[in-house]
Write a structure and sequence with these properties.
The protein is an all-beta fold. It has no helices and 16 strands. The N terminus is likely disordered.
C-alpha cells in the first residue's frame, strides 16, 4: 500500500521539514512523525517528493519573439520567478541590430514593479542582416540604469522577473528568427 502526504493532512500526525543545501539548490527533507501507538509499517513508501524537493528548481526556456511588432516604449515579460528570486544564469538574445531593445531585471510585488534595472548586454556578433547575438550574465546583484528615471540602481537579492523593453523611439518588427534563450538558477 502506498501512502501519499495528502492522506495524512487533517490528522494529528505532524510533518517535520528540514532544510539542507546541495549544489546551491535549496532542498527540503521531510519526515512524517507518527504517534507511538500507530503501527503503519509502510511508512518508508510515502511519496515525500510530492511536497518536498527543490524549492526553486533551475529554469530554462527559449522564447520566440516574432513574427510580431513591439511598440515603442513597450515591454515584454520573459520570465516571472515569484516566489523565487534569481541567483545566477545567462541570457542569449537574437534581436534586431541597433533597435533600442534592452534586457531588464525587476522586482515585482503584488503585480507592480517596485524596482528595475537595465542589464548590460555584450554584443557577440551579427549573424544575418538585421540580426545580432547578444549575451547577458545574470547574478543575484545586478547594477544598471533604472528604465524610468535613468539613474543608477542596484537590485540585490530581490530579482524575480526579466523583461525586454523597447527604448528605441519606434516600433520594432521581430522576425521568426528573433528569440531569447534563458537559463536561470533560483532560490527562495
Amino acid at each position: 500500500m502506498r501512502i501519499t502526504p495528502k492522506d495524512w493532512f487533517g490528522k494529528r500526525d505532524s510533518i517535520s521539514c528540514h532544510a539542507c543545501v546541495k549544489q546551491t539548490l535549496p532542498l527540503f527533507l521531510c519526515f512524517l512523525v507518527l504517534p507511538a501507538s500507530d503501527n503503519r509499517s509502510n511508512i518508508h513508501e510515502i511519496f515525500l517528493d510530492t511536497f518536498c524537493g527543490p524549492a526553486c528548481p533551475p529554469q530554462s526556456a527559449t522564447i520566440v519573439l516574432g513574427p510580431s511588432p513591439m511598440e515603442s516604449n513597450g515591454a515584454r515579460i520573459l520570465a516571472a520567478f515569484e516566489p523565487c528570486i534569481l541567483t545566477d544564469g545567462t541570457v542569449i538574445l537574437n534581436i534586431p541590430e541597433e533597435q533600442g531593445i534592452r534586457l531588464a531585471a525587476a522586482n515585482v510585488q503584488g503585480g507592480q514593479t517596485t524596482q528595475s534595472a537595465i542589464i548590460p548586454m555584450q554584443r557577440i556578433s551579427t549573424i544575418a542582416q538585421g540580426q545580432t547575438l547578444y549575451s547577458a550574465d545574470l547574478t543575484e546583484q545586478i547594477a544598471g540604469l533604472d528604465p524610468i528615471t535613468g539613474n543608477p540602481v542596484t537590485l540585490n537579492s530581490n530579482i524575480n522577473a526579466l523583461f525586454l523593453w523597447n527604448t528605441g523611439g519606434q516600433n520594432v518588427q521581430f522576425s521568426a528568427d528573433n528569440s531569447v534563450a534563458l537559463n536561470a538558477v533560483l532560490r527562495r
